[in-house]
Amino acid sequence: MIIITQPSATEAQIDSIVARVHEFGLDAQISRGASRVIIGVIGAEDLVREKPLAAMPGVEAIVPVLKPYRLASYDARGKASAVAVGGIMIGATHDVALICGPCSVESEDQIVSIARKVKKMGAKLLRGGAFKPRTSPYSFQGLREDGLRYLAEARAQTGLPIITEIMDARDLPIVERYADCLQIGTRNMQNFTLLKEVGRSRLPVLLKRGFSATINDLIMSAEYILSEGNPNVLLCERGIRTFETATRYTLDLNAVPLLKSKTHLPVIVDPTHGIGLRDFVPRMSLASLAAGADALLIEVHDSPDLAKSDGEQAITPDTFADLVPRLRAVAQAVGRAL
Q1: Domain 2-63 has CATH 3.30.70.260
Q2: Domain 74-333 falls under CATH 3.20.20.70
Q3: Is the pLDDT of residue 191 over 90?
């Protein structure tokens, strides 16, 4: 880190800052400018970051130099990573993957029917919720293990690997029994106990950005998973809460190139939740692909008006069928394939 002193800092205060740095077992390099003194602090990254030097008299600002995320950083690997989900590669590949399915698994017939349709149209993975976190405790909460069994049956009939959400570390053994990839939803992005548990899982993890989280917050949550030994993390931009009320959330497509510059992890975009209005999901899907997404997560439902959750944002199979050729054209334009 770098310590910037106040213009009025006295020599005694500067000496005290340097002495405190040395007390912590760190080295200090002093550079004197016209109005301020800059003190470079050198030592173990974690040790430097945790010291309360900003509270000392004469200190104006502390500027971190090293990234707080080591394993997720692009510099840690030097190239983009690819993550395999049930044999489908997402990330540092030429291909872009489509992840489709309903918000909630409602019945075996429903999920199998949708899985067959989206596979025929080009989807590579199936997503559906068996455990559903809802704002209201009175809303549909999912079919739990029955829903997982139905997802597994859809996989058996179509070959599509399945991604499903886990909400509680206690459910991890059950979900691992059926799933190909664990999804951490927006509300659990900073559930650090859960992140540590999935970090010890053998399955890849799709980590959704919290709707009030910064980009660095998302990366640090990924770091929790990586630090426990699971290298297979997919980052997902799914919209953030802003002052805008015309849409459900604001889909932050700035996050896609930023995440790709900061981390080596694959980046997925969920335009469905990002805008929350089915009429605009196709256009935001095209924009997400143009921004550099490695995969798209699009909710598809046979009868959105009858859906038990989030029907207002799900597109129909017919709309999805119309969208796929346009996605292929955009993918080709940005040097990818679908």
Answers
A1: no
A2: yes
A3: yes
